[in-house]
Specification:
The chain is α/β, with parallel strands linked by helices and 394 residues long. It contains 14 helices and twelve strands. The strands form three sheets. The protein has a seven-stranded mixed β-sheet, with helices on both faces. It has a three-stranded antiparallel β-sheet with strand order 9-10-12. A two-stranded parallel ribbon has the order 1-11. The radius of gyration is 22 Å and the shape is globular. The structure holds pyridoxal-5'-phosphate.
Length: 394
């Protein structure tokens, strides 16, 4: 079996989540909006799923809106808050390292007259809370900053950013916590966010299920019209099995978090130590304020996509960065924003560990990855020095 080191892209569905979902895909198929007994049973299970997710976040069940995933949660948060706040202002502050689910949504809002400010980041991908504060004007309605970056794993100083946002009246804070949710404790009260996005498939829940936390009193406009589901915030018959799978997987991830984080950190450090001896390699992202299982690097003079392909042939599944941009020739906007020149950013590689990653898999990865990275580098350097192969024997 190939070793799966791409948990930042997605994780396998855990057995407990599947078992909890199955009855709602079979006998208990009722529509939560139906008045009869099937519907009432479905409604009770859906209400309970709201409560269970809310408890993990220190929130109230009525503050949770189930969505089709992290991308939809981000879209609903940003467009919903932007349109609801239009009368107060049109300025939105964000960062230059957000996931496309945020970045591209903001580009879209610009077409409708919203002004978007993308703050720069430091070499480690961190936003300076003082810069957030300085960027907020009396026309600002929303700030959106991710909790942890999906390409380089850097954790943002969100509590400090929230404190800065709070000094301004009527400015909402949205936090994309999709990548961070399994590994970073989120208490919405302590975090100080008004809107928080999570997605189930990053913590061994099902794909196509996500949730948006919406603080009581926060007005967002629904982005799809139809029924009154999710307290008028998200029309459409609910994905009940998905919501239950999300709630089950998230509860387990939160309960096991301390142990998982300690193990992943140890495994990631072991892998990083083995790989970063290869000349021309460098860790990307913050050395300490980072997701425990996400190891990201650049290998100079290589093409990350080719390295990932070579690793695939050696039985290791990993990626260059965001799964959403795989296959495109675009270089990472995250690494570029962190100050890496395009040639270096092309050598990006991300190995992301998960709860089910074993020590044996890490030992095997430590034995394989450095050799593959080194040989790809040697090959690329030889090609650059002698592009026509004239120095090679016939
Ligand atoms: C930080 C971040 N935000 C949003 C998303 C999108 O989530 P989904 O795949 O559930 O739509 C991802 C997925 O990679 C992510 O890492």
């Amino acid at each position: 079996m190939p070793i799966y080191l791409d948990h930042a892209a997605t994780t396998p569905l855990r057995r407990e989540a599947l078992d909890a979902m199955l009855p709602y895909l079979t006998e208990q198929f009722g529509n939560p909006s139906s008045a009869h007994s099937y519907g009432r049973a479905a409604r009770a299970a859906l209400d309970e799923a709201h409560e269970r997710v809310a408890r993990c976040l220190g929130a109230d069940g009525r503050e949770i809106v189930f969505t089709s995933g992290g991308t939809e949660a981000n879209n609903l948060a940003l467009k919903g808050a932007a349109w609801a706040g239009k009368a107060r202002g049109h300025r939105i502050v964000s960062s230059s390292v957000e996931h496309h689910g945020v970045g591209h949504t903001l580009r879209y809002l610009e077409k409708f007259g919203f002004e978007v400010v993308e703050l720069p980041v430091d070499r480690y991908g961190r936003v300076d809370p003082a810069e957030v504060d300085a960027a907020i004007t009396d026309r600002t309605i929303l700030v959106s900053i991710m909790l942890a970056n999906n390409e380089v794993g850097t954790i943002q100083p969100v509590a400090e950013i929230a404190a800065a946002v709070r000094t301004h009246k009527d400015v909402l804070l949205h936090v994309d916590a999709v990548q961070a949710a399994p590994y970073v404790e989120i208490d919405v009260g302590r975090l100080g966010a008004d809107l928080v996005s999570i997605g189930a498939h990053k913590f061994e829940g099902p794909k196509g299920a996500g949730a948006l936390y919406v603080r009581h009193g926060t007005h967002i406009l629904a982005q799809q019209q139809g029924g009154t589901q999710e307290r008028h915030r998200r029309a459409g018959t609910e994905n009940l099995a998905g919501a239950i799978g999300l709630a089950t997987a998230y509860e387990l991830a939160c309960a096991e978090r301390a142990e998982t984080v300690a193990r992943l950190k140890r495994q990631r450090e072991r892998l990083a130590k083995a790989v970063l001896v290869v000349p021309g390699t460098e860790l990307t992202g913050h050395p300490r304020q980072r997701l425990p299982g996400l190891f990201s690097m650049v290998a100079r003079d290589t093409d990350g996509a080719s390295v990932a392909m070579a690793l695939d042939l050696e039985g290791i599944a990993c990626s260059v960065g965001s799964a959403c941009t795989t296959g495109s020739t675009e270089v990472s906007h995250v690494l570029t924003a962190m100050g890496y020149p395009e040639e270096e950013a092309r050598g990006a590689l991300r190995l992301s560990l998960g709860r089910t990653t074993t020590d044996d898999e890490i030992a095997r990865a430590c034995a394989i990855v450095p050799g593959v990275v080194a040989s790809m580098r040697v090959g690329a350097l030889a090609l650059a020095a002698d592009p026509l192969g004239q120095g090679l024997p016939a």
